[in-house]
Amino acid sequence: MPAPGGQLPDLSHPAVEVAPQLLGCVLRRGKHAGVIVEVEAYGAEDDAASHAYRGPTPRTEAMFGPPGGLYVYLIYGMHLCANVVCCDEGIGGAVLIRALRPVTGLAGMRRNRPKAASDDQLCSGPGKLTAALGIRKGDDGLNLTTGAVRLEPGERVDTCDIVTGPRIGISKAVERPWRFAVANDANVSRPRPVAR
DNA sequence: CGTTTGATGCTCT
DNA sequence: GAGCATCAAACGG
User: Fold this and answer.
1) How much is the pTM?
2) What is the number of other CB atoms lying within 10 angstroms of the CB of residue A138?
3) pLDDT value at position A194?
4) Which of A11, A56, A100, A149 is the most buried (most CB within 10 A)?
5) What is the spatial distance, in angstroms and rounded to an integer, between the CA atom of A103 and the C1' atom of B8?
6) Residue from A102, A105, A110, A65 nearest A83 by CA
7) Which of A40, A144, A157 shows the shortest CA–CA distance to A95?
8) How would CATH label the architecture of A15-182?
9) What is the reported pLDDT for A45?
């Protein structure tokens, strides 16, 4: 069930449960902010695709921290991915933010992403949105309520407007339909999920 | 140690 | 649709 507008989901719950509830919430860094329109859940029991699968390491430490934290990591040597840490401390669960609909600080985001062909491609991917918002490696582990990067209540997203599908870019546990997105939103990365 | 592989994005064909 | 950039973990010997 998606979170009603005006409040955040309970982040101490499992990632698969929290993920769809984050749709409609706002991710902000300074003046740059956008509504979350696409996410993926990681770190449930036996999830071989999760960075938490083999226990904590220096890189994944934030994923095992308290819910409501930010997990940032470098992927493919050049892009950063941002995750909302959820589940109880020590479990190692997080929700990858895959796409945003930009709402404030558009001019700054365009400067951060000069190659984006249009505004709906500013944040249409996990590496794109971290660049657009200006999220950096040093933001890893900070608190999303008090830190430089914040998670804020946003708009309500109706359950029937949420589509699901397999997670993107993984080679393990590919069959799990743990990608969630707002249906018919131009900011969602490709391929667009179709299933309900 | 050396080698492979990524929760990606951009360019060129 | 294929290839590449670029580097830190993970993995095998």
Assistant:
1) 0.95
2) 9
3) 79
4) A100
5) 23
6) A65
7) A40
8) Roll (3.10)
9) 85
Q: Which nucleotide is nearest to A74 (CA to C1')?
A: C8
| CB atoms near residue A196 (< 10 Å) | 10
- Tell me how far CA of residue A91 lies from CA of A33, A41, A138, A161, in angstroms: 29, 14, 23, 30
- Domain residue spans of chain A: 15-182
pLDDT tens-digit readout, A25-74:
999 999 999 999 999 999 988 999 999 999 999 999 999 999 999 999 99
Positions of chain A with pLDDT lower than 70, given as ranges: 1-6
Give Cα A16 distance to the centre of its chain: 12
Burial (Cβ within 10 Å: 0-12, 13-18, ≥19) of residue A23? buried
Determine if strand C comes within 7 Å of the CB of A191. Answer: no
